[in-house]
Amino acid sequence: MKKIPKTELQVMKFIWEQENIRVASVDITKFMSENYNWSKGTTSKTLIRLVEKEFLKSEKEGRQTFYYTLVDGDEYLKFETKEFFSFMHNNSLSSMVSALDDSKDISEEDIKALEDWIKSR
């Protein structure tokens, strides 16, 4: 699996969040326009790149194009996380935890979940 740029990941995250097996290009274009101010052309080019990279499969049905995911969202998340952990923290959990230490975004609930995870290992 290959890492994809943030722009392509934004599209993939939207598609992964959908409950449908297939997602219409119209829906993707509308979402990207409303949330990121993308043009139809930008969205179309991004979808074409994702098909070329085999993250998506496209199918024409009349005048409409539908997209199907070929890469599972959870699998990609694991891939990205492992790559980040390896590259940024040299596979050191203590390095990653200490980097998070100053973060105000970590709740007591998050800390408890981490403690429980460590104990279960």
Protein model, in words:
The protein is an alpha+beta fold and 121 residues long. The chain has two domains: 6-69, Arc Repressor Mutant, subunit A (Orthogonal Bundle); 73-120, no CATH class. It contains six helices and three strands; from the N terminus they run αβααββααα. The chain has helices at 6-17, 25-36, 40-52, 73-89, 93-100, 108-120; strands at residues 22-24, 56-61, 64-69. A three-stranded antiparallel β-sheet has the order 1-3-2. α1 (6-17) packs across α3 (40-52). The protein is elongated and about 55 Å long. The two termini are 27 Å apart. The model has no long low-confidence stretch (mean pLDDT 91).
Summarize the structure.
The protein has 121 residues and is an alpha+beta fold.
Superfamily (CATH H level) name of the largest domain = Winged helix-like DNA-binding domain superfamily/Winged helix DNA-binding domain
Structural class of the secondary structure composition?
A: alpha+beta
N- and C-termini, Cα separation: 27 Å
Secondary-structure element sequence? HEHHEEHHH
Low-confidence segments, given as residue ranges, are none
Helix content: 55-70%
Keywords: DNA-binding, Transcription, Transcription regulation
Pfam families: Penicillinase_R
Protein name: BlaI/MecI/CopY family transcriptional regulator
InterPro entries: BlaI_family, WH-like_DNA-bd_sf, WH_DNA-bd_sf
